[in-house]
């Protein structure tokens, strides 16, 4: 039994939920998101709650149960508060700035890296070494942060590169004489 799947998702005030068969649409103050449920789960909407339950006792139905409930919770949280990821840039001469609708990164390459901002994502650079990615879709925010981090992952000797805020970089000792 899924401990997460058993809990119904509470719908806060100001959020409109439309359930049409296996399609769910959530509208809130920040925007609108939609998803389609897998056929192994059954969804019911009543009294400001959305409940997800498995259709059968198959392994796939039980594994989808908790995941689909979490996805509904993520949709509701996204349209009410949104999601943010912060990236930190470490390294001499490494910096980031917004240029129009793209993020310009100087990461020690012979050229600047221009990252086009995806639709539905907002990127800010409060200073040259911090990138703040925000949006209503948790998957898009995380994927965008991962793509930016991929340009220069933090290395273990000096810690140079792009890392998530609060990420621990395992440090290695360099060569000895």
From TrEMBL:
The keyword Phosphoprotein does not apply. Residues 11-82, 91-164 form the Large ribosomal subunit protein uL6 alpha-beta domain. Gene3D superfamilies: Ribosomal protein L6, alpha-beta domain. One of its GO terms (biological process) is cytoplasmic translation. The keyword Ribonucleoprotein applies. PROSITE patterns: RIBOSOMAL_L6_1. One of its GO terms (molecular function) is rRNA binding. Pfam families: Ribosomal_L6 (PF00347). Keywords: Ribonucleoprotein, Ribosomal protein, RNA-binding, rRNA-binding. Belongs to the universal ribosomal protein uL6 family. This protein binds to the 23S rRNA, and is important in its secondary structure. It is located near the subunit interface in the base of the L7/L12 stalk, and near the tRNA binding site of the peptidyltransferase center. This is Large ribosomal subunit protein uL6. The lineage of its organism: Bacteria, Pseudomonadati, Pseudomonadota, Alphaproteobacteria, Kordiimonadales. The gene is rplF.
């Amino acid at each position: 039994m899924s401990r997460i799947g058993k809990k119904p998702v509470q719908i806060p005030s100001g959020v409109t939920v439309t359930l049409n068969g296996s399609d769910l649409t959530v509208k809130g103050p920040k925007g609108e998101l939609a998803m389609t449920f897998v056929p192994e789960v059954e969804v019911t909407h009543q009294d400001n709650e959305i409940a997800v339950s498995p259709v059968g006792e198959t392994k796939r139905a039980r594994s989808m149960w908790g995941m689909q409930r979490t996805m509904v919770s993520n949709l509701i949280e996204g349209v009410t508060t949104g999601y943010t990821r912060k990236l930190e840039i470490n390294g001499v001469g490494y910096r980031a700035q917004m240029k129009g609708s793209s993020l310009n990164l100087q990461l020690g390459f012979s050229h600047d890296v221009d990252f086009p901002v995806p639709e539905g994502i907002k990127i800010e650079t409060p200073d040259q070494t911090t990138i703040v990615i925000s949006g209503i879709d948790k998957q898009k925010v995380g994927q965008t942060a991962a793509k930016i981090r991929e340009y220069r992952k933090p290395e273990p000797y000096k810690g140079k590169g792009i890392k998530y805020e609060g990420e621990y970089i395992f440090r290695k000792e360099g060569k000895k004489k």
